[in-house]
Amino acid sequence: MNRRILLIVALALPILVLGVDAFMHHLQRANGEAVTLPIEGFDPRDLLSGHYLQYRVDYGVENGCDGYIGAASVCLRPTRGIYPRGDLPADCGLFIQGHCDDHGIFLADIERFYIPEEYAQSLEDKVRDHQGELALSVDRQGNAAIRDLLIDGKPWKEVAQTSH
Amino acid sequence: MSTIAKLNNWLQAGLITPAQHAAILNFEAHRPQSVNWWLYSLMILGVTIIGLGIISLIAANWADIPDSVKLGIDFSLLTALAVAIYWQYPNRRHGAWFETLLTGFMLLCLASIGLIAQIYHIGGQWYYALLFWAGITALLSLYARSLFARFLWVTLFLHGLAWSVAALPDNSFRWEETPSILLLTPLLTALLHYLATHVKPLHGYASSLFFWFQLSAIVALAFADITRSSGEMNDYRAIWYLPAYLTAAILAVGILLSKHYRLLNRLLLLAALTLLLLYYHPDLLFTGAQRYALFGFTPHADVSFWQADDIRAPILTLLILFLYAVHAGNSGHQRTFSLITFLIGLRFVVLYFQAMGGLAATGVGLIISGALIIAMAWLWYKGRDRFRQWARGLQA
What we know:
The structure holds 2 protein chains of 2 kinds. Chain A is α+β, with helices and mostly antiparallel strands. Chain A is 30% helix and 34% strand. The model of chain A has no long low-confidence stretch (mean pLDDT 85). Chain B has 14 helices and no strands. Chain B has helices spanning 3-12, 18-30, 37-61, 67-88, 97-119, 126-141, 147-166, 178-198, 206-229, 242-257, 263-280, 309-331, 334-356, 363-393. In chain B, helix 5 (97-119) packs antiparallel against helix 6 (126-141), helix 7 packs across helix 8 and helix 12 (309-331) packs across helix 14 (363-393).
């Protein structure tokens, strides 16, 4: 292939891939079913790390992963529970895919929320006080995307601006 | 000494004729001048600072800027840079702009991944992001002509690949598994270097990969030496090394099939590889017991000489270095040979302090230690050439 044409391909490829990536994330956030789950800080030292909040999502499952490590899904409807990938009950109508780590925690890559540094401390305090919730969008394949961080049921921006 | 000064010397010494002298000067005067490295560095620095400024502006105000505007600015910049790179393509051999814009574009791609992750709150690992970046810019990096742009791409790609592969067994990486990364990186880099030297379009990456191979191999060896000498690593799990073992197996096949190496070099490399794998294996060669004090660890003088980890570790280090030095000397790699023989000498000095560390606490001991270091340096300087001649002679 002509090197000039190949250069056009080489330049267009990253732009296209990044564009598709952003568009897919946008679609996932806009089209899934809305779910709200409470969050809590799991370690006071690591709750705020840089410009993002780190937290643990409370799926309402008492025993967590129950010793299982590996790919898993958490069923949210009709009954809540964490199951190894493939063992999900047939009647499960809404679930999130993720994995159980070696501490018995279910993780779905939604445990990070980027925030501006100026609001970091006040939001961190509120999350630690169990006032935080995560507004999610979950599609039929079990992919979860973050829509917003809620403090006492309100979007974080609204709360941050009133407290400043 | 400049080229002109050298030419004048050669002319005065009668090595070249006045006609040749004039012809060379004429050839050099009409040859397209390569871009000064400092000009190129300054331009890269400028582009990087502009990029950082844009990122800082977005980072400082990102909550107030709508997502669509942030993404719009980002993709407009990417497109403008892409057009500028294409526009500069005919001048790629005569100026620094093509390389500067290319590097800027690749860095902006990385920043774009960060921006998308920030907007959509994606919580993936940094090494997956680097691997993704390397994947989408791989084709473009083939157009880079300067060492800097290639080195940048190779460096970020290697970090993304090594950490991602190390995380493969259970899809996560924990800090206590660091030894697996240290063993995997030189093996993976050696494998990629092998590929780069055998596949023509990848030749441009070979020098960067060789640099990272040497650096990561020295770090891997130093880490194993220090931790093994202090009786550690016995409680590590062999499963952590699974990616490294698989990589080593492929590398061994590559060495065996390589037409670039003679039989002796193949055997030397395979022996060094086997010893490195044994060095990292939790309990095949090491017992967890020490004989001498090192870096403040408590010694166990009752351990027999050959069972002590701090005896076996330096022997293994020196053996691996010796095998590789013979390979380098035999293959004519002068700089590598000098570096490895220097490391052998350095390890002997450290070995002396391990065994006779108490002496360094007294005045006489310090004098003896200083004299020993000078003697080692002199021996290394004098013996290096003989060793190189011997290694070269092995090929006959």
